[in-house]
Specification:
It is globular, with a radius of gyration of 21 Å. Among the domains are: 61-108, no CATH class; 118-198, no CATH class. By secondary structure, it is mostly helical. The protein has a two-stranded parallel sheet. Strands 3-4 form a two-stranded antiparallel ribbon. The chain contains 7 helices and 4 strands.
């Protein structure tokens, strides 16, 4: 099932303005950069609302959980089993809270505590990401299957960030440091992705 507004569901959330703009940093260090980021985010939200219509106000987790139960009923199932990964953890927990008698079994890969606030959630995730990246570097040093086995991974990665934007096929202006960081973050999610991350075709830093 694709939750409302995404995937193959219709109507879909439509945002004409890309959420990320290479000209607008997502990590502002000056008041002017912060102002630019706020203005860009506001423009993205307003364009999404105009292009999507009323649906944009009804794509919350509770609504998605109720949609899932409607699907269960349509299939004639008395109970369901859920595997929750990433955001699916929160969606599954919400479903179990709303319809506890409909859950046969549930497995979640992490407990998302939405009561702690976005600031605490972001700082916790940043610390964990740093820890996982250090484990990735350690794995590269120990396993010859890592394409960066003979390198100082931490120094190599910092060198790539310092050289950004990096040349890339189909990207005329190159890959900025923020996009490189996001791609690395996404690949760190599961150790099964680490060999692909280590072998990603990027321009090496100067020796």
């Amino acid at each position: 099932m694709d939750p409302r507004g995404v995937g193959g569901s219709r109507p879909a959330i439509t945002c004409p303005t890309p959420p990320s703009d290479p000209a607008v940093t997502q990590f502002p260090t000056t008041p002017e950069q912060y102002r630019q980021l706020v203005e860009h985010n506001r423009r993205v939200a307003e364009d999404c609302r105009r292009a999507t219509g009323p649906l944009v106000d009804r794509v919350d987790t509770v609504s998605a959980a109720r949609d899932f139960d409607a699907l269960r009923e349509a299939l004639g199932a008395r109970q369901v089993s859920r595997l929750g990964l990433s955001y699916g953890t929160l969606l599954g927990k919400t479903y179990a809270r709303l319809f506890p008698h409909r859950v046969r079994a549930a497995v979640f890969d992490g407990a998302v505590d939405h009561s702690i606030g976005f600031r605490r959630m972001a700082s916790d995730e940043a610390r964990v990401t740093e820890d996982v990246f250090t484990r990735f570097a350690k794995w590269c040093g120990e396993d010859v299957k890592c394409a960066l086995h003979d390198r100082d991974v931490l120094a190599y990665y910092q060198g790539l960030l310092d050289r950004a934007p990096l040349p890339a096929q189909g990207v005329p202006d190159g890959v900025p440091a923020e996009q490189l960081g996001y791609g690395t973050y996404s690949a760190l999610y599961a150790p099964a992705n680490w060999p692909r991350l280590a072998g990603a075709p990027v321009s090496p830093p100067d020796p």
